[in-house]
Amino acid sequence: GAVDLEYDLVVLGAGPGGYSAAFRAADLGLRTAIVERYATLGGVCLNVGCIPSKALLHVAAVIEEAEHVDKAGIVFAKPSVDVDALRKHKDGVIGKLTGGLAGMAKARKVDVLHGYGSFLDPYHLEIEETSGNRQDKSGAKQVVKFKQCIIAAGSAAVHLPFLPRDPRIVDSTGALELRQVPGKMLVIGGGIIGLEMATVYSALGARIDVVEMLDRLMQGPDADAVKVWEKQNAQRFDKIMLKTRTVAVEAREDGLYVSFEGENAPPGPVRYDMILQSAGRSPNGGKIGAEKAGVIIGERGFIPVDAQMRTNVAHIFAIGDVVGQPMLAHKAVHEGHVAAEVAAGEAQGKAELARSAFDATVIPGVAYTHPEVAWVGYTEAQAKAEGKKVETAKFPWAASGRAIANGAEYGFTKLVFDAETHRVIGGTLVGPSAGDMIGEVCLAIEMGADAVDIGKTIHPHPTLGETVGMAAELAHGSCTDLP
Ligand code: FAD
C-alpha cells in the first residue's frame, strides 16, 4: 500500500524506554516518531506502574507515620479515607507527568502517532488507530516508513489461566484504579509489585494475605533485609503463605473462594473480597508482527539484542522490558539512550556515537514498601554461590543517631567487598529512603571504589546516608565515633 509518513527513526512504544530513545534521537538530529496505542505517553511506568504506585505509597506512608507518633506523645484521630479524592490525586500526579512528556515531545518535534503498530516488513509499520486507553482499534490505518526502528513495546501482567473473569480479580493496573478498599484481600505473588500494592491497600484498611510459590518474599535482595522487612510488616498481614499456590478460585456473590495447595495451604477454601494477581510480567514481543520484519523473538517473548541494543536485524533495535530482566524503568531508559545514539551515529556517519553500548556493571532494585529495601550488585549469598571470596560489613541503624531519631533503628546498611581488591561489589539497605541512598553504592561500584574510598568520603551528619560511609569504615577497620 501507499506510505503515509516517513521518518529516520520510528520508536514503537512510549514507555520510559521509548520516550527516552525518541528524545535522545531527536536531540541528535534524527527525524523521529513514536507510535503509542494509548492516549498518553509514559507507558506502564507513568500510567499504571512506578508513578501511580509511588503516589499511593506516599499517602500510605503518611497514614502510617501519623499512627506511629503516638510513641512521641502525638495522637491523631483515625484517618478517614476518601477513595474518590485519593484516586483523583493519583490521576493528577500522572497527568502532570504525561502532560509534561507530551510537551517535551512537541518541543523536540517528535511526532506522536496514536495507534497500534505492527510490522509489515523490515522497513514499514502499519498503525491502526486506537481510542483512549481501551485499545479498541477503530479501523483507520496508516503506513509508516522508517530507516531505523526501536522496539520498546514493554510488558504486560501475566494472567493466571484458572482465575475466573470477575471485576473483583485485578492485576496491578486494576489495583491502581482504586475502585474499592476491600475488607479482605489476597495478593498472589510475593514480589515487589504485589508487596507495594499490599502496603497501599493495608494502609487504607484492608486485611491482607499473601501467597507465594517460592520459599521467600522478594527474590532480589539479601535475605537478612527480607527478614527485617518481614518483622516490620508482621502486623500488616494476616497470613504469608510461602511455598504455596492458589489452584482454584470460585466467584460467588458473597466473595471469591480460593483453594490453595502446598506447605502452608489452609485446609479448605478461603473467602476474599478482592484478589490481586501479581505473579510476574511477560514481554509484548510476540504481539507486534516482528516476524514480518525478520526480527527473532526469543524464549518467552523476549527479543534477543546485543550490547548496542540491536536485534538480529541490524537497523532494528529493541530496549526495555521487551528485551529481558530486570524489568525496570531505569534500565529501559539507559538502553533507550544507547539505541538512539547508535542509530544516530550510523545515520550520520559519526563513528564514536555509533560505538555507544550498554555496559552498566550493576542495575539497582528497590521495593518502595515500608520500610524500603534497596539492593545492587552482589548479595553475600550470590557471591558465595559463585565461589567469590568476599568480605561484608553491616552497619546496624541502631547505631545511627538519625535512624533512632526517626524511629528507624531496625534498619541496616550492608556492603559486600571483593576480599582481594576490597572494592565494593554489592550493597543492601533496608529502612526508610533506602531507595534514595542506593545510588551512592551504584556509583561506588561503577567507579571501582574500595572500602577506604567510601569510608573516607565525608558524609553529612546526622543522616541515614552516612550509614553507607560507616559500613565502609567497618570494613576497613576504623570507625568514627559519631552515633
Ligand atoms: P512500557 O512502559 O511497558 O511501555 C511500552 C509501551 O508500548 C506502552 O505504552 C504500550 O502501550 C506501548 N505498546 C506496546 N505495543 C504496542 C504496539 N504494538 N503499538 C503501539 N504501542 C504499543 N520500575 C521501576 O524502575 N521502578 C518502579 O517503582 C516500578 N514500579 C512498577 C509498578 C508497577 C505496578 C508495575 C506494573 C511496574 C513497575 N515498574 C517499575 C516497571 C516499569 O514500569 C517498567 O520496567 C517500564 O515501564 C518498562 O518500560 P518500557 O519502555 O520497556 O515499556
From TrEMBL:
One of its GO terms (molecular function) is flavin adenine dinucleotide binding. NAD(+) binds at G117, G189, G190, G191, I192, I193, G194, L195, E196, E212, G280. Binds 1 FAD per subunit. It catalyses: N(6)-[(R)-dihydrolipoyl]-L-lysyl-[protein] + NAD(+) = N(6)-[(R)-lipoyl]-L-lysyl-[protein] + NADH + H(+). Its cofactor is (R)-lipoate; FAD. Transmembrane segments: none annotated. Keywords: Disulfide bond, FAD, Flavoprotein, Lipoyl, NAD, Nucleotide-binding, Oxidoreductase, Pyruvate, Redox-active center. This is Dihydrolipoyl dehydrogenase. It comes from Thauera aromatica K172. The chain holds residues 118 to 600 of 605 of the full protein.
